[in-house]
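RESIDUES AND SHAPES:
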Amino acid sequence: MNTMNFYTHLAKQGKPENIVLATIIKTRGSTPQVSGASAIFSANGLVHGTIGGGILENTITKMAIEAVSTGKSELVEFNLDGKITDESGSICGGGATVLLDADPSKHNVAFAKLKEDLAENKAGLLITIIKTQKNDEISIDREWLAEGDGVPADLKEDLLPGKIKELLTRRKTLLLRQKSATGENTIFMEPVLPEKRLLIIGGGHIGKALCHLAGLIGFDVTIIDNRPEIKDHSHFPEAHEVIIGDIENILQNTLIDSNTYIVIVTQGHKHDATALRQCIGRGAAYIGMIGSQRKIRLVKDSFIKNRWATKEELDEIHAPIGLDIGSETVEEIAVSIAAELIKESKTRTRMKTKKGVSIIILAAGTSRRMGEPKMLMPYEKSTIIETVAEKALLSKADHIVVVTGGYGPEIRNRLNRFAVDVIVNRDYEAGMLSSVQAGIRALPPGTRAAMIMLGDQPMIETEVIDHLIRVYNNHAHRLVIPVYNGKRGHPLLVDLSFRDAIETLDPQVGLRQLILDNPEEVLETEVDTPAILKDIDTKKDYMDIINGG
C-alpha cells in the first residue's frame, strides 16, 4: 500500500476503535524494511501495510494484538543479528526500532489535514513526537507540516527551509532526540508525497491494459481521449478520471508537474504529435510515446524544425516506449510500459534533486544610492538577502544561485546556513546582465528555466514565486512576467532555450531586449500584490518598505 493511501485510510476511519499503528522509526544495518514503513493492526492481525514480513512482522503482530487490548503504546528495539543456524530469529544482520501507537485516532486532525493537502498535490512532513516519561511509558503526538507551512518554533533550528526540501526531494526520514524536563523526546519526521499521477493519452487497447496495471502499482490514472464511444467509465474501472474531448484543449488545461507521468498511445501519428507538443517542457516526471523508430525520428525532426522543443528536451522522451522485454501482444506491451514507469519512478526517488526551474538571485550591486550594503540591512528577523533566500528556498524551485559582486564575502557569510549556491560575478560592474549571464552559467545541467529575482525585493512572497512556476509549467510560453494593475514587474521567468540569445544581448538593454524580440513568447500573469513593482534602492525606499509602504 503506498504512503498516501495508508494515511488517508486512517483519515477515512473517523475514530476507529481497537487498531494499532506500527511504524519503523530507525534501522541499523540490513533490515527487511526501511525507516518509515508502517502497518495497521487490529485484534485479528494485520489490516494494511507491512513492516517487513517474516519473523519481525510476526513478532510485531503479536505485540500489536496485545496493545489493542491494553491500550498501551510502546517503543520497541529489535535485534536482527540471528545466525543462519538459529531455529528462530532474523538473520538480516541489523536492527530496527518500532513505534507501536495504540491510539492513532488521537491524531485524526493531523491525518485529515494530510489527506486534504495531498488531494491538492501538496507534499509535507508527518511529525511524530514521542515523549518518554520517567516511568518509561510513552505518549505520542502528531502534527502535519505541509510544504510551505511555517515551521513550529521548537523545530526551527533543526528544520531550515533547505532541510525540509531535502527530506521531501530525497524522501528521507529524520530522527531527532531532544532532552526535556520529564525525560527524552524522540521526534520522527516522515516525508509524505501525493500519489504519482499517470496521464494515459489514448484509451485504446494498450491504454486500457496499462490503466489496469498502473492502478495495481499505485498510480492515480487519468484517461484522455477524443473518441466519445469510450467515455463509459466501466471500460477503465481503475481510472480516477476519464476525459473525452479535444486532446489539445484538454492538455492545455491539465496540471502537469514533477509528480506527473505521461504515456502517449493515441490512435494516430498526428494525435501523438499534438499531445507531445502540449506536454513537453512542462516539467513532467516522465513522458513516453509509442511508435516505430522512423515515426519517432520524424516527430523529433519536426519539433526541432518548428522550434517546439530543444534537442535536450526531446532526448528525455522515452520513445519507443517501454522496457525491451521482447513484447508483442497488447498485454505484453502494457507490461513493458508499466515496468518502465516503475523503473523511472524508483530512479527519481534516488535522485538527489530534479533540475527543473532554478532561481537566480541578483545581489552583485555596490549599493551606491543606498550608501551602505543594502543586502545586509535588517529586514524582518534577519537581513534583506537572507529574507529573499529563505522565501526562494520555501518555493517549488529546484535550485537557488545567488550572484554576488562587491560584497561577496559578507553576503556568503550571511548565507552559509542556507542550501544555496553563492557565486561571485567578477564582471559585476558591467551591469545587471553580466550577473544574469554568470548565474545561468552556474546552473546545474538539465535546468529548464531560470527565474531572475532581484536581491533587493524581500517583499516578494513564496506564493508569487510558486505562481510563476505553475504558470510556466502549464503553458507553452517561454517568458513569464508578473503583472499588477497592467504594469509588469519582477521576478521574470525565462526558459533556457534562450540561453545562447542571453549571452549575446546588448548590456545596455539587457533582458528587456529578449522580451522585445520575442513578443509571441511572452505570457503576462496577473498577481495580487504591488510588491512586484518595487525594489529598494534608496534609504527612502527602505523606510517606505519597512513602514509598510
The chain has three domains: 3-192, 197-350, 357-546. Residues 82-93, 350-354 have pLDDT under 50 and may be disordered.
